[in-house]
């Protein structure tokens, strides 16, 4: 718990620095001027909180507070209140499909998921269902050798649904706790590739209904990530989001519109290259990570 908090704070450093600088300008002020509001708008939009969320935050900040005159504390309270009614993470299913467009870190995330489950005492099977990119299979093999995971692949097959079926079938018969399917990156604008994803899930469903799908989104893409998610949702159900590359972006506020506008829970944040750098999303740690610089030294 402590480690998750600290890593969340560290992973949001670039986003926090931008927001912190803006709130420092408000120190000692009782009311927001027109210039302050414009500055806040620009800051929150650049951090990718989105127009809708930014509007709600600023409208509340313009009102006199009955509880605190600390602008950072008010920001914290408003965000928590906005997010309290959003969907929360569910328990993990036996079969997990990892999907997303090219370059969002699906393969690395699949391996890190297996590492996270291993830290919880769960035995995972990785299924290399990216039949388009040989490097993806090799990448998973390197991870599995390094971290002692089981891996199923079939370089001779060009049918990802077949690979996924065989992998899940093997995982169930060998009683693995978790079966993680790494799928090929696909542009959400490609009808054929999206239909292929539908086929993979349909085939896997023949073996088990105990399945959930995670969409990986690169935090650097900001609002475009919302567009990607909406397009994927037209074809398959998405149970949750994994935000990758959070440590390299100043646009780390994207988790908020994902939860508020899409109604999807964020399950994990990717905050580095190491296996342990995939951390569970925690609302309180995340919001503090957006604003409270002092928390880093205390963690």
Could you characterize what this model shows?
The structure is a single chain. α2 packs antiparallel against α3 and α6 (106-119) runs parallel beside α7. This protein has a domain at 95-238: 3-Layer(aba) Sandwich (Rossmann fold). An eight-stranded mixed β-sheet has the order 3-2-4-1-5-6-7-8, sandwiched between helices. The chain is elongated and about 65 Å long. The longest helix has 15 residues, at 191-205. It has 299 residues and is of the alpha/beta class. The protein is 50% helix and 14% strand.
Q: Concise description?
A:
With 299 residues, the chain is of the alpha/beta class. It has 13 helices and 8 strands. It has helices at 2-11, 13-25, 34-46, 51-62, 71-83, 106-119, 134-147, 160-173, 191-205, 224-233, 255-261, 283-291, 294-298, and strands spanning 95-99, 124-129, 150-152, 178-183, 211-218, 240-244, 266-270, 278-280.
């Amino acid at each position: 718990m402590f480690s998750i908090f600290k890593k969340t704070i560290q992973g949001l450093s670039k986003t926090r620095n931008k927001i912190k600088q803006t709130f420092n300008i408000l120190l000692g002020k009782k009311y927001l001027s027109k210039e302050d509001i414009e500055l806040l708008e620009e800051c929150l939009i650049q951090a990718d909180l989105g127009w809708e969320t930014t509007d709600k935050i600023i409208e509340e900040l313009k009102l006199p507070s009955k509880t605190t005159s600390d602008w950072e504390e008010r920001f914290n309270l408003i965000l928590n209140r906005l997010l309290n009614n959003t969907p929360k993470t569910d328990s993990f299913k036996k079969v997990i499909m990892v999907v997303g467009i090219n370059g969002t870190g699906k393969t690395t995330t699949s391996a890190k998921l297996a590492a996270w489950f291993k830290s919880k005492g769960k035995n995972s099977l990785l299924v290399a269902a990216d039949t388009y990119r040989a490097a993806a299979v090799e990448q998973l093999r390197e991870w599995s050798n390094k971290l002692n995971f089981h891996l199923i692949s079939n370089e001779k097959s060009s049918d990802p649904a077949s690979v996924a079926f065989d992998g899940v079938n093997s995982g169930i018969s060998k009683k693995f706790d978790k079966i993680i399917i790494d799928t090929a990156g696909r542009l959400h604008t490609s009808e054929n590739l999206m239909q292929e994803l539908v086929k993979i899930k349909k085939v896997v469903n023949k073996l088990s209904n105990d399945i959930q799908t995670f969409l990986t989104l690169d935090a650097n893409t900001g609002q475009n990530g919302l567009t990607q998610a909406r397009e994927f949702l037209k074809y398959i159900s998405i149970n949750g989001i994994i935000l990758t590359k959070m440590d390299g972006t100043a646009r780390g506020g994207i988790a908020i519109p994902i939860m508020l506008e899409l109604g999807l829970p964020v399950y994990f944040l990717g905050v580095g290259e190491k296996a342990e750098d995939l951390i569970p999303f925690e609302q309180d740690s995340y919001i503090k990570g957006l604003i409270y610089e002092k928390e880093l030294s205390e963690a």
